[in-house]
Design a protein that fits this description.
Layout lengths: L2 H10 L4 H11 L9 H12 L10 E5 L4 E7 L40 E5 L2 H7 L8 E8 L3 E5 L11 H18 L11 H11 L10 E5 L7 E5 L1 H7 E14 L2 E13 L5 E4 L4 H6 L8
Parallel strand pairs: 5-6
Antiparallel strand pairs: 1-5, 2-3, 2-4, 3-7, 4-8, 6-7, 8-9, 9-10
Helix pairs in contact: 2-3, 2-5, 3-6
Amino acid sequence: MNHNILQLKQLLKKITLEEIILRIEKFKLLDFQTISDNKLSEEIQKVLEIENGFILLPRFSSYPTKTKFYRVRKLKPDDHHLPLHAMTYEKDAWNPPETSITKLGRLNKVGESLLYTSPISPQVAVEEMNIKDNERFCLIIYQSLAEIKVSIIGEWKDLIELDKEENLKMRVRSNFLKDEFSRDVGQWTEFLYRVSERITKDYFDLPPRDIQDAWCYPSIASKASFNVCFRPELAKELLKLLGVQICEVKKEWSNYLFKVIGILADFDEDDQFIFHKVNSLKCLELFPEIWIQS
């Protein structure tokens, strides 16, 4: 049994399950709109710390090379002439400029630009952006150039070295993190993101490339799925922009039917995206999964 597990078992003996639950309940009564950043960090620490000792044991995973990551960018109803106003240059397909970040996000503070993506399935990215039936949008597709290491926030997997009660204590603590990341935040309540942002930066901002390349956290819109968030400089090092699909979707039961109108790939002499039809060789080369209706 390694040193971390032994230390964790010793710490867990010093706190009851009831005390963990009471700490979480007390935390949820805080005024997250007015509390200072330093005080918020202190209150999160009070939930997670055990007698001046602390072991979170984050879970790690990875996505293999050539994994696809998806991001959705909405189009305004009148943005249908080429070049698209929302998707003209390559920079439009990456993280937004810092000057445009005026609100807190699930992992970003005001003025901090991060690249939010959904791995594996474009459906999760569509659900996250609440795309309506027949609403036109840009589906941005990246492909990983290397293995992507992620720290998973709010997921606990029972350890055989811990007994039933010890695992339960750790699960309750992890569920606290998961609940804060799964909080449904609407307009005018963006201040609630302060908790997940602080948890991310205080406990999961681990050395890049050696330990983690991105943060992995539960999706709000698709409960069984995850999103992956990158710092911009690392995203451009580890991801290749394959192209952009101009799409519409229609939801049937629990599935989405995607209609691809065309794609944006490569650049002209003005560094603007070039539009390609779905029956073009370029579209077939980049996205052979697109089915062309005869």
